[in-house]
Amino acid sequence: MIARMILCFFVYSTFLIAITNNQVNINTIESKKKIFIYNENLMGILTKCANNNISSCNKLVNLGLLSKDECDPKDCHLIGALLSFVNRTNEAISYLKKSCESYDRLGCTHLAILYQENRDYKEAKYFYEISCNNGDAIGCYNLGMLYTSDKMSGKNSMFSTRFFKLACNMNYPKACFNLAVVYANHVKDLMNARYFFDKSCDYGIKDGCINADYLKSQGITMPILKKHRGLYIRPQ
Known about the structure:
The protein has helices at residues 13-16, 29-50, 54-63, 73-85, 89-101, 105-117, 121-133, 137-148, 157-169, 173-187, 190-202, 206-217; strands at residues 226-228, 231-233. By secondary structure, it is an all-alpha fold. Helix 8 runs antiparallel to helix 9 and helix 10 runs antiparallel to helix 11.
């Protein structure tokens, strides 16, 4: 299952929407009231959109968005995310590409998600790699998930282990759990499987606790810690 990003539009609303008040005389009380009512309505629309109300998101789009040439990378990412939510995929991709090309890792992840949903796994892999290399946990996790499927060149536990481990080290719970599953079912390393099930349990994943307890009951021990320059570390 693809991990998706939860986006908040509130902070960036003034950047996303190209609104001009040129014709409003803000020196009059009546004009100020209109601006206040407008902003109040806008926040209501933003709130509903952030809560997955597609019609509200469409209203935001219809208010008028900054063009791809006008937005900066983070704003391009948010506009692209908004457009993807209302199924304007081609437009969303153009905004997200600009964001990703400017090294906005979240923009790269969102772009990869769109490509994966459209079954373009080669492009998805490419942009997940960029986001993962720039420290995005969801990008690393989704790349690991891609390698557990047969969508590209077949299942590859070595690569899925690598990317799940990166995401787990970034404190992404599902990555720790799936890493344990790969160790248990594919690598056949039950010591590391127990360790990562236990770690996912610490993050609140119930199945991680159950599997860690089961392996413990079967006599599977944790990996032995090794001392390195005065510090104990778990062998990789």
